[in-house]
Amino acid sequence: MTVFNGQFDGRFAQVGAANAPVSITIETPSIATGRSGFAWLHWSYDGTPTGGQITLTAGTLTYTIFITTGGPGFLPFSDTLFPPGQPVTITLAAGGASVRGSLAALGVKIL
Asked: What does pTM read for this prediction?
């Protein structure tokens, strides 16, 4: 098991260009019992986004959060594990003309 207990790891944090989406992918081992997860999801837009949202996909699971204001936000995902053999992709949508976004998954677990 690899646990990144809240450590900042560049593979799981990204800053986007203006009006560009930001994505993080957490790979899961392909063995039948391989799972992955994370403890916290942090995001930020440096201005008020137009069409701001986060989409999380893992296998057939899709979870969408709409973001209507600029600035930072976070969600706890403690003890959440995703399907075996399926990568977890988290995407922060483009924020609009001159708005940049950032996205980070902390406490990543790869079992």
From this structure: 0.84
